[in-house]
Please model this.
Amino acid sequence: MSAVELLAPWACHPAATRGRRHPEAPTPTRNDHQRDRDRIVHSSAFRRLVYKTQVFVNHEGDLFRTRLTHSLEVAQMGRSIARPLGLNEDLVEAICLAHDLGHTPFGHAGQDTLNDCMREWGGFEHNLQSLRVVDRLEERYPDFDGLNLTFETREGILKHCSQRNAQLLDAQEPGGVAARFLRGEQPGLEAQLANLADAIAYNAHDVDDGVRSGLITLEQLQTVPLFARHYQQVLHDHPHLHAPDHSRRLLYESIRRMLSAQVYDVIATTQAQLAATGVTTVDGVRQCGQRLVAFSADMHRQSQALKTFLLHQLYRHPQVMHTMGAAQQVVRELFAYYLEQPQAMKPRFAQRAARAADNQAALARVVADFVAGMTDRYAASEHQRLTGQTLLA
Ligand code: MG
Model:
């Protein structure tokens, strides 16, 4: 039996896709959501994720997560939850792999700065930018811009959207991927799952990277119940891990158990919610007033506590903040430079800028697209070349 025949009635079945904006003939061996995933993997935006910051700027160490390895871990987490729920694994994988394609260099510091730079012209938001990458910025097909992904994948990529942006998007694509924000509807279960898989993955890998970097300690993590509970149980089950030279095994086994607990919690909670609401169709999922793929209330609290711990102890650690301060300056100065000198951008952006010359908002958007697409190291080296300053080395 193929994976598609095992799909539950509430899954987005590939044969029932709402389709692509530019109709294409089917292929004999892959369904539409498999094709979406493959298009994402082959995109240039996907390859650039390898040199984009998750928490640590790329040059800080070779073993830390980048946006690429983060995206792969999110996809792994998503698939392993999708299968027992009877969801469309290919679609979950496609959404997970694409979810950060619109991220700027230097993580959230880069996004916040670019949003500031674009304030007069509609702002910058990485979910919208991810959609822009797959809809417009990739240049891979003879007759259309973007990757021409299915509605369901695009819907999952547009995870958040303000009412104002939803109205703008809906004007361009009436009843399209932004309509649910205007109607107050939920996305499909695969999109809901990708969203949660992202949080599960980054909470876990940021504990790992944080400890390995020395910025957070196992002692500090004892204040986080979700981690401490598994950590104590691992020590109980494997007393030899008390030895300092086993600290790495102890950390990994604790993280592994923490991940498993969250995965089983999501599966059980989602099954219970599907049963309680009686939802059995994709339309039922969309109309349902609540998210059906979710943590239990208790696990939600524990996950939030870990997130808050990481925010205060890692993301706002003075060493991380120092690097991010420099990164913000790089993004701000690059944006200002290209807005003044659009012809200094790569040719395809310079050409778009030339066409937008009499429209400052359109010109600023071209500059934002160019800067957002940069990898950390390209942004740092361009900044150095253009300003003569070395801010990140
Ligand atoms: Mg992410």
In short: The pocket of magnesium ion is lined by residues 70, 99-100, 198 (CB under 6 Å).
